[in-house]
Amino acid sequence: MFNKIIAPLFVFVAAFAAPAIASAQEAAGSASGSNPSILAVAMAVAIGLAAMGGGLGQGRAVASALEGICRNPNAKDQVFVPMLLGLAFIESLVIFALVIAFIIQGM
To answer: What is the pTM of this model?
Structure first.
C-alpha cells in the first residue's frame, strides 16, 4: 500500500517540478524578481503534501490505538493519552508547513 501512495506522489511532484524549475530559471534571469505564480504553486504543493502526510499519519496512529484498545480494553487509559499527544505532534507539523507556505508567500 505504501508504494501505491508514494509512486503517484513522486509523479505528481515531478510533473510540477519541471515547469517550476524552468520558470524559476527564467525569473532568475530577469530583473523583475520572483514569479508570483511559482510561489503560489510552491505554497499549494507544500500545504498539500503536509496535509496528505499528516492525514495518513493520523489515520495510522488512530487505527493502531483503536486496535490496541480492542485487543485489551483495560489498556484504554494507557493508550489514549499518548495517542492524543502523538496526534497533536502530527498536527503541529502540518501547521508548521502552513507557516512555511506563508513565509514563501512573503518572499
So the answer is: 0.60
